[in-house]
Amino acid sequence: MEAWFVINIKPKKEFVVETLFQATRTRVYIPRLLKDGRPAPFFPGYGFIFFDFPSQFRLVRFMRGVKAVLGHGLQPIPVSPALVEEIQSRERDGFVRLTEVYDVAKVGDDVEIVDGPLKGMRGIFNKELKDRERVAILLRYVAYQAQVLIKRDKLRRVEH
Length: 160
Description:
Mean pLDDT: 84
Radius of gyration: 20 Å
Low-confidence stretches: none
Oligomer: single chain
Number of helices: 4
Strand order of the largest sheet: 14-13-12-11-15
Shape: elongated
CATH superfamily of the largest domain: NusG, N-terminal domain
């Protein structure tokens, strides 16, 4: 049965495993995101692989860098092709993008910084900058208010 399965990969070996499977012409998908400007696995320690079970199971299970094929013992559990397609549909320029702040936040919306040294701080979406990757927010901190320029992927809209 040919299907997509999830593999558990040794730490920091996702892209090595991807290259090894590509060399055997096995379909593999390691979703990527940009983290601090560098490619990183979207699901650290995991990837998707399309293979025929049981005929290719040994190739997959014993590939260097693979810890396990997720399932029950020696019976891997397939994942829906729709799941893989949904993740792939969110890719832009080879990187998975979740709902971005400019799709949901408008001037005046409350936002929260979700990454970096200011993580957890809240502010008001002030304006989008010309490069469309950074935005200006008015940061609220006790009785102090300051304008901060920040990458848009470091924000999330806060629901009331």
